């Protein structure tokens, strides 16, 4: 027969395990959770205060994979795929150039302008609806789509 002390000890151990699991779930990777989904690029802000409005460019993030969709003008949309990695206050992205398509290269240069197919950004703002990424003197503004 179990003693009162044994029963109390087991209840305390069960309660401690449950509390630890709840704490781990509550303290999960908020950055990953906030980042996951589709984002619409709104504009760039440059060091001199100038801005460039951007329409119909979307970034998708899901568990280390990313895609950029260029749905610009009357031409068909283009998608580039790749991956991303998160650090405490930054994100690194790498896109794969599947073809040498001139239109895709033009869109990449015009709307991303990274200089190569990979870039690292400081995350200035990340909320459930706003994402601001900074690279050098340029800030990319995105909203949840």
Descriptive report:
With 145 residues, this protein is of the alpha+beta class. The protein folds into two domains: 1-29; 36-144, Beta Barrel (Lipocalin), CATH 2.40.128. It is 27% helix and 43% strand. The chain is built from three helices and nine strands, in the order ααββββββαβββ. The protein has helices at 4-26, 30-35, 102-111, and strands spanning 37-45, 51-53, 57-62, 65-70, 78-86, 90-96, 118-126, 130-135, 138-144. Strands 1-3-4-5-6-7-8-9 form an eight-stranded antiparallel β-barrel. Residues 5-28 have low confidence and may be disordered.
- Largest pleated sheet: 8 strands, antiparallel, barrel
| The level-1 CATH class of the largest domain | Mainly Beta
CATH architecture of the largest domain: Beta Barrel
Structural class: alpha+beta
**Structural domain count:** 2
- By CATH, the topology of the largest domain is Lipocalin
Strand residue percentage: 35-45%
List keywords for this structure.
8-stranded antiparallel beta barrel; 9 strands; alpha+beta; 145 residues; 27% helix; Lipocalin; single chain
Quick structural summary:
The protein is α+β, with helices and mostly antiparallel strands.
List the helices and strands and how they pair.
Elements: H1 4-26, H2 30-35, E1 37-45, E2 51-53, E3 57-62, E4 65-70, E5 78-86, E6 90-96, H3 102-111, E7 118-126, E8 130-135, E9 138-144
